[in-house]
Amino acid sequence: MENKLDGNAAGGILQEIFPFEMTQAQATCTGCGATGAIGALAVYMHGMGTVIRCPSCDTVLIRIAQRRGQYWLDMQGVRVLQISTEV
Questions:
Q1: Cα separations in angstroms, 66 against 14, 31, 39, 61
Q2: pLDDT tens track for 25-40
Q3: 34 within a domain of the structure (yes/no)
Q4: Which of 13, 19, 31, 64 lies at a 20 to 30 A Cα distance from 70?
């Protein structure tokens, strides 16, 4: 994988999929139970897609692949995703 980035790097692709600010959403890891804002998670971006990992235990939380206007989301590593519509 290419260089590790913070979760804000995934903000663009998440904004294409979700109609609200996803970097502020709170994700709970299925591996260790840690909860954190997506903007604070570890992101790896490369030609095959985007991988978002738990910074505590390195569990893959979210995988995103995109091709020709279609998105594939694998969120097996997220136990709970809390999204606030308040700014």
A1: 11, 26, 20, 17
A2: 999 999 999 999 999 9
A3: yes
A4: 31
